[in-house]
Amino acid sequence: MNLLKTDAILTRAETRVASGYTSGLIGKEIADRLDISYHTVVRHTQNIYDKTGIKHSTNALVAWFLEKNYDLDLSELRRRFGAFLLFCLTTFQIATTDFDNSFVRRTPSRARRVEARKGGAKKGRRDDTYYIDGIE
């Protein structure tokens, strides 16, 4: 295992738990992967919080771990700026997506298309198309 800068602060077990959080796992998944109990993961996480002064935030723990070991600058301002950029990209993607046909149910091969009849359709609904499943 490579030596990490956090090895001077955390025990080997605590480093493995912190690395699990950095990989995007939750406590129960970390416990399964490390073959330890969930309560042990909780105890190690609490010890990490106590040693580092992090205020019980997994996101802050991951940011601290990455900053210390990989020399990344993940200050609060940079994280907020990154979240804002992600929000803008997502909003742009949603704004430019054509939703007109994205939720239309595709007609299965066994369905039969039935158009509204002039006499039976309600006013203003003559052009509606109905699909009836199971008719051969």
Structure in words:
With 136 residues, the chain is mainly alpha-helical. The chain folds into two domains: 5-72, Orthogonal Bundle (Arc Repressor Mutant, subunit A); 105-136, no CATH class. It has helices at residues 12-22, 27-34, 38-52, 58-70, 76-95, and strands spanning 112-115, 129-132. The chain has a two-stranded antiparallel sheet with strand order 1-2. The chain is globular.
Descriptive key words:
136 residues, 2 domains, Arc Repressor Mutant, subunit A, single chain, 49% helix, mainly alpha, 5 helices, two-stranded antiparallel ribbon
Q: Which of globular, elongated, flat, extended, rod-shaped describes the shape? A: globular
Query: Which structural category do the helix and sheet elements fall into?
Result: mainly alpha
CATH class of the largest domain: Mainly Alpha
Helical content class? 40-55%
Question: Main sheet, how many strands, which sense, barrel?
Answer: 2 strands, antiparallel
- Supply the CATH architecture of the largest domain: Orthogonal Bundle
Distance between the termini: 64 Å
Task: Count structural domains.
Answer: 2
Main-sheet strand order equals 1-2
Integer-rounded radius of gyration: 27 Å
Parts with pLDDT < 50 across at least 5 consecutive residues: 109-113, 115-124
Number of helices: 5
CATH topology of the largest domain: the name is Arc Repressor Mutant, subunit A
> How would you spell out the order of helices and strands?
HHHHHEE
Strand content: 5-15%
Under CATH, the homologous superfamily of the largest domain reads Winged helix-like DNA-binding domain superfamily/Winged helix DNA-binding domain
The overall strand count is 2
Whole-number mean pLDDT: 77
